[in-house]
Input
Amino acid sequence: MKVLAIRGRNLASLEGEFEVDFTVEPLLSAGIFAISGPTGAGKSTILDAMCLALFARTPRTDQAKENNVKLRDVNEEVLPQSDPRFLLRRGTASGYAEVDFRALNGHRYRARWSVGRARDKENGRLQNPRVTLYNIDKEQEEQGTRSELQSRIVELIGLTFDQFTRSVLLAQNDFSTFLKAEQGEKASLLEKLTGTELYSSISRLIFEKNAVAKEAYDKIQARIQGIELLTEEAEQELQTRLKESEVTFSALEKAKAEEQALQEAVKSTGQQIATRQEQQKEAAGKLLRATELLNTARKEYEQGIQDEQRSEADFKALQQELQQARKLDVQLNEATRSAKETETRLRDALQRKKEGEDKLKAAQTKQERSTAEIARLTDWRKRYASKESIAEQLSALLLYLDAASAARQTLEKAGKTIASIRQTAERLAIQLKTVQQTAETKRAALQRTEESIRVSEQELKVQDQEALEKQLEAVRAQRENLLIEQARQAASGDIMELRKKLQEGSPCPVCGSTHHPAVTHATMSEMPKQIAALTLQLQQLTARKTAYTASEKQLNQLRQQLLQLHKELTEAEQSCTDILGRQKLAETQIVREESICAESKETLNKSLSAANSLFGNDEWQKGWQQDPDSFRETLTTFARSWHENTERLQQLQREQSAQKAECESFASFLPSLTKEVEDATLRYEKNRTELSALQAERSKLLSGQSADQVEKEYSNRKEELKERLKRLQAVQTEQSGIADQLKGISEQIARDLEKASEDLQLRRKALSDWSESWNREHEGKTLEMLLPRVTREKNEYAFRLRSNTENKQKIASQQKELEECRRESERWAKLNDLAGSADGAKFRRIAQGYTLDVLLNYANVQLRDLSRRYRLERVPETLALQVIDRDMCDEIRTVHSLSGGESFLVSLALALGLSSLSSNRMKVESLFIDEGFGSLDADTLRIAMDALESLRTQGRKIGVISHVQEMTERIPVQIRVSRAGNGRSYLEVL
Output
């Protein structure tokens, strides 16, 4: 993954458009570059734009942990302080962040994050941000929702936001915190930075699974213990009682069946008698109804014969009237046909007459309108006859007007340009004066600084630093020897007393020597004075050395200041040169624009003079000067109207004679059409009179009915009477047979009733005998009393035995489940002992320990290049860190004992190590370090720069945010962010 370009607009202090293109010089060939500028100018905003375009998030907004805190936007709207839309610069309506990058698949893509305010107003409400992804190589935009596109970007670059901020964008502050944090904080930070939260989830899941497995085992065990079983004696006794109750129950069931059979026989015989009696009654009723229907059918049959005879007599009487009606019907049909034909001819004649009148009227109306239009057009041409020449010479006139308008616009534009250039020249003069004053100030400061450096160098030459160091070491050694001797003498008081008794020339009782050099040494009482004198001398020499060191440091600062003043003076002189060049260019532009003005004035005067000759006067210029475009449009419209009206008038004059002839032709046809309508009307009235007379005569015959209809009605009536007689004859036959059948049924029912009564008496006697026998055997206890009690006892015994069997089966089936749950619970318990915990800390600590070891291996590789003195190690069995000091014989030191510069080097090694850890599966070709290097001295800064240079040789493009002077001077290619006032900044690539 490689970043190719970063763009944006209106983000934080960077107002307007800005772009950092790594595909063009000087950034293309630069392996390492610096992003420099004063504090708060907007250096980190460039990296915020990169993160916004790729992930719609930034490290700085993500650090706003108090998400419940709301900040006020325009129009009283409040938003969470972690909302990245707050990066949109206040007072602007929209902004965006854009990044071009090369993905893992080798294609180039452009990711863009944009946000705007409602209605594109500065005080509008913030809208939801929009994310787009464009394939530059394929020239095709990727489709999808915002979340889908962001997932697609992660897939293309192979890094999530957290991984990106560890491997591409490095911030040392987090690792400084990580380096010296408590173990709990270190675990949390390590989880956030290295993604070991998965192991916390696994640890918590193991703990939960163990609890669930143990709970399942306990539940099954409790469920088994809650099941009750019968003893073997109780179960045997119940089985014996069940067998006895079943025998008794079978006997009772058999007796019940005998009793029910006898009762059912008595009941069945009684029901048969009742049924036969009902059937006997029903048969008597049916016989009565059949006799009545038979008599009614005989009477209706006799009446039908009389109706048939009467109908035949009536039809014979209508025969003569039917013949007259048929004759009149033929005459009516002929008269109706004639009336319809004459009516059709009359309607056609009236239609032709109406069409002729309509055509004549339309032709006359058209002729009148044409005459009126000719008069109107003639009057219009007379009214504008004086402007005919304008319409005829419009093309030439428009050429002159267009030339005059163009010259006028050029003249106005040149005037404005001259005024603008003069204003620019005035501003340049003011800037030149300011820059010259600044240059003079810098020269004076430069002279003063050079003088201070000369004085400091002379003062340092006077002092002999090497002699001072030797004297200091000698005094320090002499003082330490005296202190040791003082301690030795204080520890051996008897020896001192013996030394006092020694005399030169007399033998020593210990060694026998006659020379005693120890006697000549200072006594105990003189040593404190000598030590105090040496201490005072040592303090004086140390003060002189400190003063010398301070003078050297001050001299170095003055030399740095001198370099800065030289640079600033050079920049001021360069600015003066640039301003003088821009002033000269402005003068040249003014001369060129004045020449353009003179040419435009000449062209304008010539064009207006030519137009005056065509108009015949110059009064038209007033309207043209007010609005040339409207004046030109008015002329064009008039000329177009003049030509259109002329053509229309000629066309109407040609059409007028044809219209007159057409009117005369239509008028000549009207008399013949009127005569045709009159003749058709007379014939139609005659036929209507004849038809009415025939209709009146025909209505008197057959009551107006047709002869065919009357004959048909007679035939239908005759058929109906025949059918009715046939139906009545069938009814008589049917009812006669039914009456005979019902008489036989009634006689059979009477015989069956007599036999059933005898059977009923016999069955009642058998039931009575059975009941007396039962009561004698069971001492008066009825079957209804004994059977429910025996049934209840039998069911109770059977239920208790069945429940006991089911409980045995339940226990047998749950024993297998209990064994499976026990094995599952033991397996999870072992895992829980190894890695499970409620808060996920146990397994997380193990994983974090391994991860931290890998991270320290990567970090130590980087640390060897930065400082060979130190090596990082993990304190055994903890997440704490310790430092091995190789210069102190591998002494173990706490990280809290490191100085500020040493802490930075170790933290930078950790940051670079994590970058290697996060990107070991892919090639990351861009690296941005957002960290100041102000805590480093010159040598350490040089080492850090060498380490970054080594990363550049590995194929990475390194960007460093810093405002350290020496660092920015060492890096030739820079992206400089400068303030422009009012909280605005701009950037330039140097």
